[in-house]
Design brief:
By secondary structure, this protein is an alpha/beta fold. Helices cover about 30% and strands about 30% of the residues. It folds into three domains: about 60 residues, Roll (Archaeosine Trna-guanine Transglycosylase, Chain: A, domain 4), CATH 2.30.130.10; about 100 residues, Transcription Regulator spoIIAA; about 190 residues, Vaccinia Virus protein VP39 (Rossmann fold). It contains twelve helices and 20 strands. α2 packs across α5 and α7 runs parallel beside α8. It is globular, with a radius of gyration of 23 Å. The N and C termini lie far apart (about 60 Å). The mean pLDDT is about 95. The protein binds S-adenosyl-L-homocysteine (SAH). The site of S-adenosyl-L-homocysteine has 18 residues, from α8, β15 and α10.
């Protein structure tokens, strides 16, 4: 089956970008089925790539390979999976963590496939037609390549599935089911993870390196951990010697796991405060009651889900950052993040600069952060960079 692009639309494919939008397609020869492999040709009939057909998505094609010699079959998928898995071995072997991302979709040449490892369990997301088409082979290959795993669980309940015309789907795919809560290790800490009901695949693995970076700023400090989830940053603050950590989240189940995580690691319950609250409201209450903190973490959910929501999202980022800046004691530290792919690094820094100006404080960026190394960014796919963070000293 062949897909022929409109004139002048081959450039992006020649630059090895893995997405082809519906507007770039002139016609097809044959009628490809959902997720089937097609050859992609320029208007001048030049072979460009081989990709998977997504009939319902605006991203109509996702490229598997730019090499005409590559047949797309189990052998091809095996080589991609093997490369992906082998470059994460060090993280797991070094003792840095017992959980990490093994396959990061487009960045690993497997568009739409996420595979996260939590101890002996894999949690997968099949988010595009191509990987759904090859799902059975992928599951088979994963337990062949990783003979020590006990089970593979599916968490394909991300919203992007709807754009592919797919329903959300969760459940056991192979082997035995993971327990209700798994206990993973991250550096010196242990965390309980609910892979069936937790956010994403259960834990925010992308923040692993940034959580560890927090510890050094916390000795004897009063810390405010906003959007705490199950306590990732909060636990690292306690490990770093924080006197008191206040954790805010709107999710009661997340805070319950946080409470258990504090206990699991043997930290005194008195050093932590848990508040089920809206961060926007909570920060205003702190401001009105003139509370102060030495360290504040802002790790909000994705405020910009699409390009259209960018202005609103920018205002929300500015709002929480302005409030946080006002609550910090002189010399205090702000760890601030955005995981909205639509808000680039430059724009994020401009938003923080705007908040700084309004706050009347002097702010220095002392470190720039991003997603952990097991969430790589392929240079032919810059869209894969979504997490940005700034560590700021506030005077
Ligand atoms: N820092 C965490 C991940 C944070 S994810 C970690 O390292 O594990 C974002 C969290 O924000 C989620 O737990 C979600 O429940 C919470 N959340 C979303 N909107 C919120 C709001 N308006 N107020 C408080 N919490 C919110």
């Amino acid at each position: 089956m062949k897909i022929i692009l409109k004139p002048q639309h081959e450039h992006i494919v020649k630059r090895r970008h893995p997405w082809i939008f519906s507007g770039a397609i002139a016609r097809s020869e044959g009628e490809p089925g959902f997720g089937e492999t097609v050859d992609i040709l320029s208007a001048k009939n030049e072979w460009l790539a081989r990709g998977a057909w997504s009939p319902h998505s605006q991203i109509r094609l996702r490229v598997w390979s730019f090499n005409p010699d590559d047949a797309i079959n189990a052998g091809f998928l095996k080589a991609k999976l093997d490369r992906s898995i082998s470059c994460r071995r060090e993280i797991l072997a070094s003792g840095a963590a017992s959980a990490c991302r093994l396959v990061n979709a487009e960045a690993d040449g497997l568009p739409g496939l996420i595979v996260d490892r939590y101890n002996e369990f894999l949690v997968c997301q099949f988010l595009a037609a191509g990987v759904v088409y090859w799902q059975e082979s992928i599951i088979q290959l994963l337990h062949e390549l990783l003979p020590d795993i006990a089970g593979i669980y599916e968490r394909s309940d991300a919203e992007v599935r709807a754009r592919e015309g797919l329903e959300s789907k969760c459940g056991l795919l192979w082997g035995s089911a993971p327990p209700e809560t798994l206990e993973i290790q991250e550096g010196p800490l242990r965390f309980l993870v609910d892979v069936s009901n937790g956010h994403k695949t259960g834990f925010y693995l992308d923040q692993r390196e940034n959580r560890a970076a927090l510890a050094e700023f916390c000795k004897g400090k009063q810390v405010l951990n906003c959007f705490s989830y199950t306590g990732g940053f909060g636990l690292w603050a306690l490990y770093g010697g924080a006197a008191q950590v206040t954790n805010i989240d709107s999710s009661a189940p997340a805070l319950e796991l946080l409470r258990r995580n504090v206990q699991l690691n043997g930290f005194a319950a008195e050093r932590t405060t848990l508040r089920e609250a809206d961060v926007f409201t909570y920060l205003r209450t702190c401001r009105d009651s003139r509370q102060e903190f030495d360290v504040i973490i802002l790790d909000p959910p994705k405020f910009a889900q699409s390009e259209r929501q960018m202005d609103k999202a920018a205002r929300a980022y500015k709002d929480i950052n302005l409030l946080a800046l006002k609550l910090l004691r002189p010399g205090g530290i702000l760890f601030t993040f955005s995981c909205s792919g639509h808000i680039g690094r430059d724009l994020f820094q401009k938003i923080i600069a705007g908040a700084t100006l309004d706050s009347g404080r002097d702010v220095h960026i002392i470190r720039q952060l991003g997603q952990a190394g097991d969430h790589p960014i392929a240079l032919n796919f810059p869209e894969g960079e979504y997490l940005k963070g700034l560590v700021c000293r506030v005077w």
